Amino acid sequence: MILSAARCMRVRGARGFTLLELMIVLVLVAIIMATAIPLLLGDGPSNSELRSAARQLAAAARQVRGEAVTQRSEMLLVIDLERNRFKIGEDPREFQLPEAIVLKLFTAQTDQISDTVGSIRFFPDGGSNGGRITVGAGEDSDRKYEVDIDWLTGRVAILE
Q: What residues pair up with 78 in beta bridges, in sequence order?
């Protein structure tokens, strides 16, 4: 009788999965879902794209400030909000940002070229007219970075 009971338990145990096997499968499914769902939904740009765009704009602002000081003349950072492009100083090239991001510009009224194009002005002493460029994932999204230009010193900072 003891022998048949042990044989019976071995047969029953061989039919199901262990708890460890089930946990491994659940972890794998969770990892796959965590990576696949954002790709399928495509809800705007990634955080790294937003951060990269903010860094590009901040670097451009710093470059324009440097050119204004070295050339001893006013220089502009021109931003096209509709086409997600910007232009550095007197350089004829335009730099493209990802289409998925949304740009907003807060600057002086005198430096708004049109409804969708504006600029931030830098002076020979290193100062500027000040302003803020918001790089966001959408109109109502909380995911955004702000490139802040101080009006007095021309200092450029990225705020999260």
A: 87, 119
What span, in angstroms and rounded, lies between the C-alpha atoms of 94 and 119? 13
Distance CA 122, CA 65 (A): 6
Supply the pTM of this predicted model.
0.72
- In which residue are the tokens 């019976």 written? 8
12: its two tokens:
């029953």
- Report the candidate in 58, 77, 57 with the shortest Cα–Cα distance to residue 67: 77
Question: Contact, 102 vs 137, CB < 8 A?
Answer: yes
Q: What tens digit of pLDDT does each residue of 102-157 get?
A: 999 999 999 999 999 999 999 999 999 999 999 998 777 788 999 999 999 999 99
Task: Return the CATH class of domain 47-159.
Answer: alpha beta
Domain positions in the chain: 2-41, 47-159
Q: Give the chain's length.
A: 160
- Residue 25, token pair as written in the block: 């499968």
